[in-house]
Design a protein that fits this description.
Nuclear Transport Factor 2, Chain: A; six-stranded mixed sheet; single chain; Aminopeptidase
């Protein structure tokens, strides 16, 4: 798929684009959207093998103002997929290509915003899978209540978020409740401990719960954190870990070295790899 800005030679594709009534209750037909084009509103086409499969507008300034206080944000509106092309993953492809497209064509933009009808559950799930986050903002639209979702393009936010993700992971570990830890883990997370490797969430859970039973009232902490690499979608750090608690009624403590690898999934940092080793004396 290729995302392109509308030009007149593409007009025949717009005329052939099909939306049915069930779609039109949530969005507008591209023919109507083209009548609203302005200096701040740009029509975007998703093209596959010469066919128009998805359409949406990118709207800056007055378009995004009702949904965000960020002057550098841009709004996705009138997003749709040709009825005959549904079920082939084209909407997801377009949304996955969107961040890079915006960075290239709208370099001043640091946030992508969209508003989805509360009744359009399928679209909500799609946007979440493509990295858009619901921060609890709601607006009233002409067709009902809207959920405002956003996708940050700000690299500085990325740096801050991954460090917060590490802190959240340590805090979750100290709850001694694996469901809290799992919220921070990638579904394909793999761990290497000094005595065992775990390559599934089930194995990781078993190891955590066994360790919590072995060391009662354990308190886990880290120090000397060094970030080796931070990118928009992945980050790696090393640190010293410390634990203390009670084993068979006796106070025990220890430390070791750790490596953590985080990746971005659905616009959230997730831990995908941890390697723990005992402290070298």
């Amino acid at each position: 798929m290729e995302l392109v800005v509308f030009k007149e030679p593409y007009r025949y594709l717009i005329d052939e684009y099909l939306l049915v009534e069930s779609q039109l209750q949530f969005t507008g037909h591209p023919q109507q959207c083209l009548k609203l084009v302005s200096a701040s509103r740009t029509p975007i086409l998703g093209i596959v093998d010469g066919n128009l499969v998805t359409y949406f507008d990118l709207h800056k300034e007055e378009g995004v103002e009702p949904y965000s206080d960020n002057q550098n944000a841009i709004l996705v509106r009138a997003f749709s997929t040709d009825f005959r092309k549904q079920g082939k993953g084209y909407a997801k492809q377009a949304l996955k290509l969107l961040p890079a497209f915006v960075k290239k064509n709208f370099p001043q933009v640091d946030e992508i915003v969209l508003a989805v009808n509360v009744k359009n559950v399928a679209a909500q799930e799609l946007y979440k899978k493509c990295g858009f986050i619901d921060h609890g903002e709601r607006r009233q639209g002409t067709k009902g209540e809207l959920i405002v979702m956003s996708y940050s393009l700000n690299t500085s936010d990325t740096v801050g978020d991954v460090k917060q993700a590490l802190k959240a992971y340590i805090d979750a570990t100290n709850t001694h409740q694996f469901q809290q830890v799992q919220k921070l883990l990638h579904e394909k997370a793999a761990y290497i401990f000094s005595d065992q490797s775990c390559k599934s969430i089930v194995d990781i859970q078993a190891y955590f719960e066994r360790a919590w039973k072995l060391i009662e009232q354990e308190v886990y902490s880290i120090s000397n954190v060094e970030w080796l690499f931070i990118h928009e979608t992945s980050a790696t750090c090393i640190y010293t870990y410390h634990y203390e608690g009670y084993h068979q009624g006796q106070f025990v403590q220890g430390s070791g070295r750790a490596t953590n690898v985080f990746v971005v999934e659905h616009n959230e940092w997730k831990l995908i790899h941890e390697h723990l080793s005992t402290q070298v004396q």
